[in-house]
Design a protein that fits this description.
Layout lengths: L1 E4 L5 H10 L9 H9 L4 E8 L2 E10 L4 E8 L8 H14 L6 E3 L9 H6 L34
Parallel strand pairs: 4-5
Antiparallel strand pairs: 1-2, 2-3, 3-4
The protein binds coenzyme A.
Coenzyme A binds next to strand 4, helix 3 and helix 4.
Length: 154
Protein backbone atom coordinates (compact mmCIF):
# COMPACT_ATOMS: atom_id res chain seq x y z
CA UNK A 1 0.00 0.00 0.00
CA UNK A 2 1.16 3.50 -0.83
CA UNK A 3 0.15 6.84 0.68
CA UNK A 4 0.36 9.96 -1.47
CA UNK A 5 -1.31 13.33 -1.86
CA UNK A 6 -4.64 13.42 -3.65
CA UNK A 7 -4.80 14.12 -7.39
CA UNK A 8 -7.71 15.47 -9.45
CA UNK A 9 -8.79 12.07 -10.72
CA UNK A 10 -8.92 10.63 -7.15
CA UNK A 11 -11.76 12.80 -5.88
CA UNK A 12 -14.73 10.57 -6.74
CA UNK A 13 -12.99 7.47 -5.41
CA UNK A 14 -12.15 9.23 -2.14
CA UNK A 15 -15.77 10.27 -1.67
CA UNK A 16 -16.94 6.74 -2.42
CA UNK A 17 -14.62 5.40 0.30
CA UNK A 18 -15.88 8.02 2.76
CA UNK A 19 -19.46 7.03 1.96
CA UNK A 20 -18.69 3.36 2.55
CA UNK A 21 -16.90 4.34 5.80
CA UNK A 22 -19.99 6.25 6.99
CA UNK A 23 -18.21 9.60 7.12
CA UNK A 24 -20.35 11.76 4.87
CA UNK A 25 -23.18 13.88 6.27
CA UNK A 26 -26.03 15.54 4.35
CA UNK A 27 -25.00 19.01 5.57
CA UNK A 28 -21.38 18.66 4.41
CA UNK A 29 -20.62 18.61 0.68
CA UNK A 30 -17.51 16.43 0.33
CA UNK A 31 -16.67 17.82 -3.14
CA UNK A 32 -16.64 21.33 -1.71
CA UNK A 33 -14.73 20.20 1.39
CA UNK A 34 -12.03 18.54 -0.74
CA UNK A 35 -11.75 21.51 -3.11
CA UNK A 36 -11.48 23.97 -0.22
CA UNK A 37 -8.79 21.94 1.56
CA UNK A 38 -6.83 21.54 -1.66
CA UNK A 39 -6.70 25.26 -2.32
CA UNK A 40 -5.69 25.99 1.29
CA UNK A 41 -1.90 26.16 1.61
CA UNK A 42 -1.89 24.61 5.10
CA UNK A 43 -4.10 21.62 4.29
CA UNK A 44 -4.14 18.60 2.05
CA UNK A 45 -5.65 15.16 1.58
CA UNK A 46 -3.67 11.96 1.71
CA UNK A 47 -4.90 8.82 -0.01
CA UNK A 48 -4.16 5.18 0.69
CA UNK A 49 -3.73 3.22 -2.52
CA UNK A 50 -3.71 -0.56 -2.88
CA UNK A 51 -3.83 -2.79 -5.96
CA UNK A 52 -7.62 -2.24 -5.82
CA UNK A 53 -7.25 1.54 -6.08
CA UNK A 54 -8.02 4.07 -3.37
CA UNK A 55 -9.02 2.30 -0.16
CA UNK A 56 -8.59 5.08 2.39
CA UNK A 57 -8.11 8.80 2.83
CA UNK A 58 -7.63 11.54 5.39
CA UNK A 59 -7.80 15.33 5.34
CA UNK A 60 -5.00 17.00 7.32
CA UNK A 61 -4.14 20.59 8.01
CA UNK A 62 -3.13 23.20 10.57
CA UNK A 63 -4.18 26.70 11.61
CA UNK A 64 -0.73 28.01 12.54
CA UNK A 65 -0.97 26.50 16.03
CA UNK A 66 -2.45 23.01 16.12
CA UNK A 67 -2.85 20.35 13.51
CA UNK A 68 -6.01 18.41 12.90
CA UNK A 69 -7.43 15.64 10.76
CA UNK A 70 -10.90 15.14 9.33
CA UNK A 71 -12.51 12.44 7.24
CA UNK A 72 -10.18 9.60 8.25
CA UNK A 73 -11.66 6.53 6.64
CA UNK A 74 -10.65 3.10 5.37
CA UNK A 75 -12.89 1.00 3.17
CA UNK A 76 -14.69 -1.53 5.42
CA UNK A 77 -13.35 -4.51 3.46
CA UNK A 78 -9.77 -3.26 3.86
CA UNK A 79 -9.79 -2.65 7.61
CA UNK A 80 -7.50 -4.31 10.12
CA UNK A 81 -4.56 -4.29 7.71
CA UNK A 82 -2.77 -1.24 9.07
CA UNK A 83 -4.21 1.29 6.63
CA UNK A 84 -5.76 3.54 9.26
CA UNK A 85 -2.55 3.64 11.28
CA UNK A 86 -0.52 4.33 8.13
CA UNK A 87 -2.80 7.25 7.17
CA UNK A 88 -2.58 8.75 10.65
CA UNK A 89 1.20 8.37 10.73
CA UNK A 90 1.43 10.03 7.32
CA UNK A 91 -0.79 12.89 8.52
CA UNK A 92 1.36 13.28 11.64
CA UNK A 93 4.52 13.33 9.50
CA UNK A 94 2.95 15.93 7.18
CA UNK A 95 2.25 18.18 10.20
CA UNK A 96 5.63 17.56 11.84
CA UNK A 97 7.36 18.57 8.59
CA UNK A 98 5.56 21.94 8.89
CA UNK A 99 6.64 22.58 12.47
CA UNK A 100 3.38 21.51 14.12
CA UNK A 101 3.94 19.69 17.42
CA UNK A 102 0.41 18.76 18.43
CA UNK A 103 -2.58 17.24 16.68
CA UNK A 104 -6.14 17.54 18.02
CA UNK A 105 -9.06 15.78 16.42
CA UNK A 106 -12.81 15.50 16.85
CA UNK A 107 -14.66 12.24 17.44
CA UNK A 108 -18.44 12.28 17.22
CA UNK A 109 -20.11 11.18 20.45
CA UNK A 110 -21.95 8.56 18.39
CA UNK A 111 -18.60 7.07 17.28
CA UNK A 112 -17.32 5.44 20.46
CA UNK A 113 -16.24 2.48 18.35
CA UNK A 114 -13.26 4.41 17.02
CA UNK A 115 -11.85 5.39 20.41
CA UNK A 116 -9.94 2.12 20.76
CA UNK A 117 -8.22 2.78 17.45
CA UNK A 118 -7.04 6.23 18.55
CA UNK A 119 -5.99 4.90 21.96
CA UNK A 120 -3.82 2.30 20.20
CA UNK A 121 -2.13 5.14 18.32
CA UNK A 122 -1.41 7.04 21.53
CA UNK A 123 -4.18 9.65 21.45
CA UNK A 124 -5.60 10.81 24.76
CA UNK A 125 -8.70 12.63 25.96
CA UNK A 126 -7.82 16.34 26.10
CA UNK A 127 -10.61 17.05 28.61
CA UNK A 128 -12.00 19.88 26.51
CA UNK A 129 -15.50 20.56 25.27
CA UNK A 130 -15.86 21.48 21.63
CA UNK A 131 -17.94 24.57 21.00
CA UNK A 132 -18.90 25.69 17.54
CA UNK A 133 -20.89 28.33 15.73
CA UNK A 134 -21.80 28.34 12.08
CA UNK A 135 -20.63 31.42 10.20
CA UNK A 136 -22.96 30.96 7.24
CA UNK A 137 -26.18 31.85 9.03
CA UNK A 138 -27.53 28.30 9.15
CA UNK A 139 -28.96 26.86 12.35
CA UNK A 140 -26.47 25.15 14.64
CA UNK A 141 -26.54 22.50 17.31
CA UNK A 142 -27.77 22.81 20.85
CA UNK A 143 -27.15 26.24 22.37
CA UNK A 144 -25.10 26.15 25.57
CA UNK A 145 -27.51 25.22 28.33
CA UNK A 146 -30.20 24.44 25.74
CA UNK A 147 -32.07 21.23 25.11
CA UNK A 148 -33.14 21.31 21.47
CA UNK A 149 -30.44 19.74 19.32
CA UNK A 150 -30.59 20.19 15.58
CA UNK A 151 -29.17 17.70 13.15
CA UNK A 152 -26.21 19.74 11.97
CA UNK A 153 -22.71 19.22 13.30
CA UNK A 154 -19.05 19.30 12.40
C1 LIG B 1 -10.81 4.03 12.22
C2 LIG B 1 -10.36 3.33 10.93
C3 LIG B 1 -9.81 4.37 9.96
C4 LIG B 1 -9.26 2.32 11.31
O1 LIG B 1 -8.77 1.78 10.10
P1 LIG B 1 -8.02 0.34 10.03
O2 LIG B 1 -7.29 0.30 8.75
O3 LIG B 1 -8.97 -0.73 10.36
O4 LIG B 1 -6.99 0.49 11.27
P2 LIG B 1 -5.59 -0.28 11.43
O5 LIG B 1 -5.70 -1.65 10.82
O6 LIG B 1 -4.50 0.58 10.94
O7 LIG B 1 -5.50 -0.39 13.00
C5 LIG B 1 -4.44 0.22 13.72
C6 LIG B 1 -4.44 -0.33 15.12
O8 LIG B 1 -5.65 0.04 15.79
C7 LIG B 1 -6.29 -1.11 16.28
N1 LIG B 1 -7.72 -0.87 16.14
C8 LIG B 1 -8.40 -0.61 15.00
N2 LIG B 1 -9.70 -0.40 15.26
C9 LIG B 1 -9.83 -0.54 16.62
C10 LIG B 1 -10.92 -0.45 17.52
N3 LIG B 1 -12.15 -0.14 17.11
N4 LIG B 1 -10.68 -0.66 18.83
C11 LIG B 1 -9.44 -0.95 19.28
N5 LIG B 1 -8.36 -1.04 18.47
C12 LIG B 1 -8.57 -0.85 17.17
C13 LIG B 1 -5.82 -2.24 15.41
O9 LIG B 1 -5.93 -3.49 16.08
C14 LIG B 1 -4.39 -1.85 15.15
O10 LIG B 1 -3.56 -2.21 16.24
P3 LIG B 1 -2.04 -2.66 15.99
O11 LIG B 1 -1.41 -1.66 15.04
O12 LIG B 1 -1.44 -2.65 17.35
O13 LIG B 1 -2.13 -4.02 15.37
C15 LIG B 1 -11.53 2.55 10.29
O14 LIG B 1 -12.07 1.68 11.26
C16 LIG B 1 -12.64 3.44 9.74
O15 LIG B 1 -12.59 3.89 8.59
N6 LIG B 1 -13.71 3.66 10.56
C17 LIG B 1 -14.90 4.42 10.11
C18 LIG B 1 -14.62 5.89 9.94
C19 LIG B 1 -14.24 6.57 11.24
O16 LIG B 1 -14.81 6.33 12.31
N7 LIG B 1 -13.21 7.45 11.15
C20 LIG B 1 -12.73 8.24 12.26
C21 LIG B 1 -13.56 9.45 12.48
S1 LIG B 1 -13.02 10.34 13.95
Amino acid sequence: MVIREIEDEDVDAVIAVWQRAGLTRPWNDPHEDIAFARRTPTATLLVLVSDDGIVGAVMVGHDGHRGTVYYLGVDPVQRGAGGGRALMEAAEAWLRARGIWKLNLLVRESNDAVLGFYATLGYGDQECRVLGRRLDGRADRTPLGGDSPSSEGA
